[in-house]
Write a structure and sequence with these properties.
202 residues, mainly beta, Porin, 8-stranded antiparallel beta barrel, elongated
Length: 202
């Protein structure tokens, strides 16, 4: 009985290891920003506060090929302000990319003994849904802190270059915003980015 359980455990771990190799790590960065728009109640009445963090956006994610035309990813992105350096707004979402021209690049780990790939561009359209959380502080302003959160929906348009068997170079446009705000106070969060990055096996 003990040997049977050990055998089942071994097979499960082997299956998990094979499944984990299907996921690829993605890093990206570029020009853009994240922001919060919120109506804040004060003693002098309601004031519209608009805060943003840019001009840089960076992101990280895990991605998996679902089929020859579709991929799925979990991604997190943040906007950065350089002076003073701050990063208080983050977007995390699940993304589906549909490759309408070409196929999904199949990344092959370096340890693979044999493989074949073609260096070419594959173009995609993507949809995303997730969550955003943020807090932006500004010293010296009447409203020093603006905080918000919400459910997001977004689109991603771009292209992948299968540069090496184990690496893909990606260029994309990303835009997202919150929706379904149930608060009495009007507020929203948004992001925009012109990003470049790499996707590789880990």
């Amino acid at each position: 009985m003990k040997k049977m359980w050990l055998s089942l455990l071994f097979l499960t771990l082997q299956s998990y290891s094979a499944y984990a190799l299907d996921w690829n790590l993605g890093l990206k960065g570029g020009f853009g920003g994240t922001g919060i728009q919120k109506t804040v109640e004060t003693d002098d009445g309601n004031i519209d506060a608009n805060r943003s963090e840019g001009p840089a956006v960076v992101g990280i994610g895990l991605e998996k090929n679902i089929s020859d035309k579709l991929s799925f990813a979990i991604e997190h992105r943040r906007g950065f302000r350089f002076g003073p350096f701050t990063s208080g707004v983050g977007f995390t979402d699940a993304t589906w990319r549909w490759y309408y021209m070409g196929v999904v690049p199949a990344i092959v780990p370096q340890k693979s003994e044999s493989y074949f790939f073609t260096k070419k561009w594959s173009y995609f359209l993507g949809g995303a849904a997730g969550l955003a959380f943020g807090e932006i502080s500004r010293e010296g302003e009447k409203i020093k802190k603006v905080k918000s959160s919400g459910v997001t929906i977004g689109i991603k348009i771009g292209a992948d270059l299968h540069y090496r068997s184990d690496m893909v170079i990606r260029s994309e446009i990303v835009t997202s915003s919150t929706f379904m705000n149930a608060s009495v106070i009007e507020e929203s969060m948004s992001e925009f980015g012109l990003l470049c990055g790499v996707l590789f096996s880990y």
